[in-house]
């Protein structure tokens, strides 16, 4: 811009060039980006699963070769995080499949002329627990799971009881 004296009065009708302000938009909340559909998202980015698998194998190889203790700990933490993410993704997928199966069932009943019946959250939880129980029984880890649960509950009960000092 042209340098002007501060002592000179500003002309009454000066020309101002208006600059357009950039409008930043967040794709998470904007309608232009479309709606989030987990099924479509999973299909679109399914190739990432193979990439993650390769990365996990690479980290495992590095972990076997590594001699540095600090580096080994970091790699172990990374590997644990990767496996936890993988497990969480599988769990989410199972939940999604279960919900889709229930929806299909309700559609079939609606086609037959029956009223749709939607499960409550507590009933969904019961079904999930029953499924987990069956899975543990099949894998043979049911006894250890139940014993751990009993121990946890016993500790909770012990904590809730009033201590001898209070009496």
Automatic annotation (TrEMBL):
Feature: compositional bias, Basic residues: 147-167
Region listing for Disordered, in residue ranges: 145-167
InterPro entries linked: RRP36
Cellular location(s): Nucleus, Nucleolus
Positions in coiled-coil regions: 52-139
Principal location: nucleus
GO cellular component: 90S preribosome; nucleolus
Domain of life: Eukaryota
Spans through the membrane: none
The entry's keywords: Coiled coil, Nucleus, Ribonucleoprotein, Ribosome biogenesis, rRNA processing
Pfam families registered for this protein in UniProt: RRP36 (PF06102)
GO BP annotations, alphabetical order: maturation of SSU-rRNA from tricistronic rRNA transcript (SSU-rRNA, 5.8S rRNA, LSU-rRNA)
Record bears the keyword Zinc-finger: no
Keyword Coiled coil: yes
Function: Component of the 90S pre-ribosome involved in the maturation of rRNAs. Required for early cleavages of the pre-RNAs in the 40S ribosomal subunit maturation pathway.
Family under the similarity heading: Belongs to the RRP36 family.
Subunit structure: Associates with 90S and pre-40S pre-ribosomal particles.
PANTHER family hit by this protein: RIBOSOMAL RNA PROCESSING PROTEIN 36 HOMOLOG
Protein's name according to its UniProt entry: rRNA biogenesis protein RRP36
Lineage of producing organism: Eukaryota, Metazoa, Chordata, Craniata, Vertebrata
């Amino acid at each position: 811009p042209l340098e002007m004296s501060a002592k000179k009065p500003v002309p009454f009708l000066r020309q101002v060039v208006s600059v357009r302000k950039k409008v930043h938009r967040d794709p998470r909340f904007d309608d232009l980006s479309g709606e989030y559909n987990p099924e479509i998202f999973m299909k679109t980015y399914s190739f990432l699963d193979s990439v993650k698998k390769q990365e996990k194998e690479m980290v495992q190889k590095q972990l076997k070769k590594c001699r540095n203790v600090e580096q080994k700990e970091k790699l172990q933490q990374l590997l644990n995080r990767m496996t936890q993410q993988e497990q969480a993704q599988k769990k989410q997928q199972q939940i999604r499949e279960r919900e889709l199966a229930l929806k299909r069932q309700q559609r079939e009943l609606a086609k037959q002329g029956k009223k749709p019946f939607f499960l409550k959250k507590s009933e969904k939880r019961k079904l999930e627990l029953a499924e987990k129980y069956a899975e543990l029984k099949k894998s043979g880890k049911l006894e250890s799971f139940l014993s751990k649960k009993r121990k946890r509950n016993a500790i909770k009960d012990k904590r809730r009881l009033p201590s001898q000092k209070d009496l």
